[in-house]
Write a structure and sequence with these properties.
Length: 374
């Protein structure tokens, strides 16, 4: 167990009676003491992914606070040796094998595009024969043409089919090559599908959500459980009952007119006397509803917002000081120089000298994370 320094603040109460306690728990329960990469992945169970680098990918920005000595790109570089898999949970990201077993096999819940079942069988045989396959090589072999992708553009039909096969669990991402997924065949063991097993798997998936994102307002808990339709589309019809069970079995309490839910044994302690620049999808800030309740202002991810309409910046990183998100930072790289600009909800930074010192140290940690100090 992590033993906090004298400057650390502990959050160990099982009952949450005030908004300050909820706020403290929201930070402390997910910012566990930095550990090894595998142990951090095991504890989180899921890390959301995003391809934008500003100045690094979201998964790296999330892990840097929770993994000792983490450097940008470590997850991709070490992917093949870790117990981790690219997959869809409530969003696309990285899950451990334990979480993946709760979701698969997804069965026949997802339909093939018209006429593609035969293509899928041939493509799977091709992947098995080759051992691992780059989408470019598969496209060259099959020449299935193009399709309209999820964003309205044009994509290789073969690559699109590999994506569907990945979601269905027929192939897995074995590694990446210059950011491109390299696939190998995958087969999830069969599983009994009785009611007891389904309930256990669904409750286990809810626990992953709550461990990452709690304390959760009731509306957010409901939203997250509904998002499990992406993880287990085969059990979509059981999510209402799953939510009802969650509300009965989770610890909960009413604070300032809001019903909150959390795991009763999720006590933790975090070093809070520091500044942290958080990823837009970090568990601390992911739930925008909870964010506004806890910190009293609206954070928005604006990478896809037209420039003229942006208020915070292209890839604004929420700025956490102690247990308060007090503003945001925009970081960019010019050569090996890290540039930073900050905005504050109060219109100015805290006057506390400790804040200035800790902000400088966080920027130094960011340079180290980005390997700018070598």
């Amino acid at each position: 167990m992590f033993a906090p320094s004298s400057a650390a603040r502990r959050c160990t109460r099982r009952e949450l009676n005030t908004l300050d306690e909820v706020r403290r728990a929201a930070v402390a329960r997910t910012l566990f003491a930095p550990t090894t990469l595998q142990r951090a992945l095991d504890r989180l169970g899921f890390v959301q992914a995003d391809p934008i680098r500003a100045p690094a990918r979201a998964q790296d920005l999330t892990l840097r606070h929770r993994v000792d000595g983490y450097r940008a790109g470590d997850l991709e570089r070490r992917y093949a040796e870790l117990d981790v898999h690219e997959d869809v949970f409530i969003n696309y990201g990285f899950v451990t094998a334990a979480v993946q077993r709760l979701m698969h096999p997804r069965g026949r819940a997802t339909r093939w595009p018209t006429g593609r079942a035969r293509h899928a069988r041939a493509l799977l045989a091709f992947v098995r024969d080759r051992g691992e396959v780059h989408p470019r090589d598969a496209d060259r072999h099959f020449a299935h043409g193009t399709v309209t992708n999820y964003w309205g553009g044009s994509s290789s039909a073969t690559t699109h089919l590999l994506d569907i096969m990945h979601y269905r669990g027929l192939v897995r991402v074995r590694r990446r090559e210059a950011g491109i997924r390299i696939y190998s065949a995958c087969e999830h063991p069969p599983r009994t599908n009785d009611a007891t097993t389904r309930r256990a798997h669904l409750d286990g998936l809810v626990d992953v959500l709550v461990r990452n994102y709690a304390p959760l307002p009731a509306a957010s808990l409901s939203m997250l459980v509904r998002r499990l339709r992406y993880a287990v589309p085969q059990w979509y019809g059981e999510l209402t009952r799953t939510l009802e069970r969650a509300k009965r079995r989770l610890a909960h309490g009413r604070v300032d007119g809001v019903e909150w839910y959390w795991l009763p044994d999720a006590d933790s302690a975090a070093e809070l006397e520091r500044v942290r620049l958080l990823a837009p999808f970090d568990p601390i800030v992911w739930d925008r509803r909870r964010f506004e309740i806890l910190w009293g202002w609206a954070y928005r991810f604006e990478a896809y917002t037209p420039v003229a309409k942006r208020k915070l910046g292209y890839y604004a990183l929420p700025l956490l000081w102690r247990d308060r998100v007090i503003g945001w930072g925009n970081l960019s790289l010019t050569g090996n120089t890290l540039k930073s600009a900050f905005g504050y909800v109060a219109g100015r930074p805290p006057r506390d000298r400790a804040f200035r010192r800790e902000l400088d140290e966080e920027l130094e940690r960011m340079r180290e994370f980005l390997s700018l100090l070598t």
